[in-house]
Amino acid sequence: MLQRIVVCCWCLAALLGAQSPHKMTKADVDRWMTELSNWGRWGPDDQRGALNLITPEKRKQAAALVKDGYPISLAHDALTEKALDNANPFVRTLQPGAGTFRMDTYSVSYHGLGQTHFDALCHANYEGKIYNGFSVDEILAEGCPKDSVLVAKTGIMTRGVLMDIARLKGVNYLEPGTAIYPEDLEAWEKQAGVKVAPGDAVFIRTGRWAMRAEKGPSRTYAGLHASCAKWLHDRGVAILGSDAAQDVNPSQVEGVGLPIHQLALVAMGIHLFDNCDLEELAKQAAQRKRWVFLLTAAPLAIPGGTGSPQNPIATY
Predict the structure, then answer these.
(1) Does residue 155 form part of some domain?
(2) What is the 3-state secondary structure (H, E, C) of 19-65?
(3) What is the distance between the alpha carbons of residues 128 and 118, in angstroms, rounded to a whole number?
(4) Which of 188, 195, 267, 271 is the most buried (most CB within 10 A)?
């Protein structure tokens, strides 16, 4: 009997030990802000961050992925109604008038959970610094003189990789608050037969929009656990997108609301695509059994912008 108790206690300890790498504290995130930093990697004046990993050769390899000429928009239709996850709806006003032409005016506060958008590196700061050590104090009413959206004005063209974690788990969507861990990302690579490589644009599907359609709007959603940051760094991810805001919410790191956002934008210089609609892409990828594609995107050319509404395109 004693032997059985000892064995059972050992099993429990092993189980708890296996889970311990998932637990992260603010001190861990603070340490990774230095250990995973790309500051200075491409020179002291660099503002492109991990976009530097998208080389001309990488673009040519990505273009060669196009076999069918089949495009898929990764943008969700603009949300025009106020909701829990859309505090600032997209506003379209048709201008009055008569004659040959009709015109309208758009107004959008795109950061948040409602609209598909691109996060520039100056969108986030840590201890008064944005990516590559530039001071947040330089950001004035006129916008960001450094790390703005203009660094991507010529467009993004690279290999896109869909990581359908909902499919990996055998569900239509991950339940709100579900954390995705590095071993989940590696399990998907193994199942899909694709390894993420430097310069890739990685899109994490949680099934957020399928969940929203079934359960309604929510500010709680599945996403990456903070422990995935090192995996992203080691793989050399250039762009990180998801169908929500990348981070699992609520955060599982006390004192750090969006650790993946913070580490990606500020430390690693990884631009983010928030609130992408990955449902049609997931469908087409499953039919083709092809999880890589040509990814193209271009933000609006807004001097000093902290980001931009975005319509990324996947092409098979």
Answers:
(1) yes
(2) HHHHCCCHHHHHHHHHHCCCCECCECCCCCHHHHHCCHHHHHHHHCC
(3) 22
(4) 271
The arithmetic mean of pLDDT across residues 278-301, rounded, is: 98
In-domain check, residue 236? yes
Tally of domains within the chain: 1
**127 torsion bin: left (phi>0), alpha (psi -120 to 50), beta (else):** left
Q: Is 287 contained in some domain?
A: yes
pTM over 0.85: yes
148: which residues sit within 8 A by CB, 6+ positions away? 47, 120, 122, 302, 303, 304, 305, 306
Q: What per-residue confidence (pLDDT) applies to 5?
A: 38
Task: Give 101's pLDDT tier (boundaries 50, 70, 90).
Answer: confident
> Which uninterrupted H or E stretch holds 242?
strand 239-242
**CATH number of the structural domain spanning residue 191:** 3.50.30
Domain of residue 41: give its range: 23-77+121-315
Tokens coding 170: 């055998």
Residue 247's DSSP bridge partners are 224
Q: What is the Cα–Cα distance from 37 to 31, expressed in whole angstroms? A: 10
pLDDT digits (tens, 9 = 90+) for 162-182: 999 999 999 999 999 999 999
